[in-house]
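Sequence dictates fold. Next comes a concrete instance:
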Amino acid sequence: MKKTMIPSSKSRYVRARIAFENPGTLVYLNFVAYLASCVTPFLLMFQSSQPVVHVLYQKANELVRQCMLLFMKPDVVAEKEGHDLTEVNCEQPKNWLESGRMAVGSGTERALKSVPDNKRKEILLAVRACLKIATAYLQQHSPISNPVLRDLQCLHPQISSMELNSQKECSHRSKTLPSALSMKLPVSCQRQSRQVTCRQQQLHRLCWTVEMIS
């Protein structure tokens, strides 16, 4: 008896086949894999069983700057951190790099060569839109301007900054840290920590898929 696919499976197969016949699909997959590789070190660091709260402020700011530099001018981002970094306007065209100068990864650049010029422009606009949304989300939801996390940098054994060790800074920490250390971890943070491993596994599967079809 001849085997037939159930309607739902057949429709998914048809959509997948059409997508993979489109050269633009490979471009998008390579870009997503590249973007995933940019955030993976941050995710891995905070899966550690070792205490890393003293580097969270620094690493969160580095992550946001890294995402900005993928599509924004270096002089706009500079070495900004904290509140200054949240104030960077990702929607302002004058702050953007030209489409052809955005950092999209070598795999994405190779895949773009097989795409017609008019389609290439459309894809790059979509890539920029993705980066703007992702960066704006990080600006709003990551703790890049959290004063308690900034003060907790004093726990880092290599801290030697005069600013962080000044009398004024020490006085400030003596007032903020006791209340911070007594705070309970929000339920949302506990839930997010359990989701990190699952997301990491998904990223590995995505990268494997891109390697297979490249």
